[in-house]
Amino acid sequence: MSTTFEVYPGRQPVPTFEELLALAQRRLNEQLWLRGVQKEFELRCELREGRTHDVVPVPSAASFQWPDGRYAWIFVPQHGGGTDVTSFAVGDDEVEFWNDVLADHEPARLLADKVRACLEVGLFWMFRRSAGQPPIINFAYGIIAAALAELTDGIVFSDDSAWDYARFPATARQVYDWYFVPHRALEKKYAQWAENNLSCLKGSTVD
After folding, report:
1. 151: Cβ–Cβ under 8 A, 6 or more apart, which residues?
2. How far is CA 65 from the centre of its chain?
3. I want to staple 9 with a disulfide (CB 3.0 to 4.6 A). Which of 50, 100, 104, 152 is the partner?
4. How, if at all, do strands 70-75 and 83-89 pair?
5. Left (φ > 0), alpha (ψ -120 to 50) or beta: where does 153 sit?
6. Are 201 and 136 in contact (CB under 8 A)?
7. How would DSSP label each residue in 113-144?
8. Is residue 2 helix, strand or coil?
């Protein structure tokens, strides 16, 4: 089963590949240390064609945005796997979806003004984690999403069991505070998921 985090930016301009990768790697290693994983990991990013998965050359100073039919692939060298990132325009379907969420979901109502401001920007990204990813990716894709929200003063959202639905939407700071922190999980299954992955990371080696 795949799970996702969506990021809705609160402002333009869109950060560059280089800016996102730099902040995401810094936050990843900071957050790992705060959770007792005293190791450092490197992140890399490629732009790929959707059909063939061929790598598309892109300058590191290019905006983190691309045409339909392509996706970004963010990975940790020597550890396998990765998270794919797709960018979308906000359309009528997204606006209708968020109207329903704002009507029925209390955490969204608390951030209603920010949510509406983010929708006005007109784009969002989806970070997807497919089943069978290594522990570092299971953790990292949420932190990378939060880093993008931090760079854009945006929000992170998930309603497909990536983490406690009752926590979303959330700011980057909020995600850093409770994501993969077992005692702060609202449901036992997320606490266990975090504990299992963090335990593996504490015992792994970094090549």
Report:
1. 15, 19, 20, 23
2. 15
3. 152
4. antiparallel
5. left
6. yes
7. HHHHHHHHH-EEEEEEE-TT--HHHHHHHHHH
8. coil
